[in-house]
Amino acid sequence: MTHKAGFVNIIGNPNVGKSTLMNAFIGEKLSIITSxxxxxxxxxxxxxxxxxxxxxxxxxxxxxxxxxxxxxxxMGFVKSAFEDADVLIYMVEIGxxxxxxxxxxxxxxxxKIPVLLLLNKIDQSNQEQLEEQVQFWAQKVPSxxxxxxxxxxxxxxxxxxxxxxELLPDSPPFYPKDQLTDKPERFFVNETIREKILENYKKEIxxxxxxxxxEFFEDExxxxxxSVIMVERxxxxxxxxxxxxxxxxxxxTQARKDLEKFFGKKIHIELYVKINxxxxxxxxxxxxxxxxx
Length: 293
Description:
- By secondary structure, this protein is α/β, with parallel strands linked by helices.
- The protein is built from 9 helices and 9 strands.
- It has helices spanning 18-26, 69-83, 102-109, 127-140, 157-167, 185-200, 234-241, 246-263, 283-288, and strands at 4-12, 44-50, 53-59, 87-93, 115-120, 145-148, 210-218, 222-231, 266-275.
- Strands 2-3-1-4-5-6 form a 6-stranded mixed beta sheet, sandwiched between helices.
């Protein structure tokens, strides 16, 4: 029996539902999902194992025009997704007309590997609009195989996944068959806390925040976590903490509930807030937080 294995990399503009699709493929919540743009900052691998296949799915940041060093690094993760892909997924949503970066779009249209163009959020459209969009994208990226999907409603996801497996090269698995992701446990703690900050705070606050888990101690029935929320200014620290610590407590409670589901254990979490001035534009700090491609 031959075994197939390879990298399937998802790219697209912010907010098209890339993380929702990845989580639908994996069957686990690996990528954080919020309604805000730029939720995904890193390239995250999720691994789906079958008896005769291993699909390594890569979720990347949404494509943007970088405004500072952090965003430059985020676009570096997108660039790397082109370099090792065996199958490329270009994800668009109903009503979308172009990619935010022409260079990336040219790479998609001239790709030498199979490209699946997924037209997402069709649950928010009607038949007439869907037909118009299918025709538009078929002309725009004629080399791609086009699938209308709803990542949120799980529509057409199995058909897309089955096609991915067909397209993969014959290869032994790249990762152990019981491995779910390439990221360490602390990464998912950081991302879960950051998701709650994206959900609970407005304007610039979520984008000025990075999370660093300093302690992660796992016992048989409980995991004890100590995490620091980095902000750029004193005023942001006050907003994150809130009146008598109420806002920070809310973030901690919400994160704890999600992490207990993720790890299947009781969680004790302590959150602290520190000022780390201009970390988004400091290369040394960015390396420390894993933005070092």
